[in-house]
TrEMBL record:
Belongs to the Dps family. It comes from Pyruvatibacter mobilis. Residues 19-159 form the Ferritin/DPS domain. GO terms for molecular function: ferric iron binding; oxidoreductase activity, acting on metal ions. It comes from the Bacteria. InterPro entries: DPS_DNA-bd, DPS_DNA-bd_CS, Ferritin-like, Ferritin-like_SF, Ferritin_DPS_dom. Signal peptide: none annotated. It holds the Pfam family Ferritin. This is DNA starvation/stationary phase protection protein. Gene3D superfamilies: 1.20.1260.10. PANTHER family: DNA PROTECTION DURING STARVATION PROTEIN, GENERAL STRESS PROTEIN 20U.
Amino acid sequence: MSVAINIGIEEKDREAIAEGLSRVLADTYTLYLKTHNFHWNVTGPHFNALHAMFMEQYTEMWQSVDEIAERIRALGVFAPGSYAAFSRLASVEPTSDDVPSAEEMVAQLVKGHETVARTARQVFKTAEEAGDEPTADLLTQRMQVHEKTAWMLRSTLERAS
């Protein structure tokens, strides 16, 4: 038995928002996996600090992917959940097989967090135009997290003067 969804958002708008959220989900999951990989493989004089920082970041993203996927489901659309789907949808560059230097890891993560923030900002416009406040709120939170994390990571690359 299928029950119609009547939450005050037109079906075409719900589908457009869910498509955008699917891209946010794919970007977040791809960045989560990259961050977890870097947590495992970081080396060098800043190992302890970066290892702990990366763990905090991937843990936060792991929790957020569930929130994003559940919002997609609340809109009446199935959430993507395979590597094939994520690779089709993601803008974040996946990790290569090579293990980069700690500094390069941080630079790649800055780029990844900025990418997720841009994707979320694009979807925010769609949600806002459709009057989808819960999605707009979720995206606002995600943009804040990714912009702050990018700033913190960028700060580790700056030289003291």
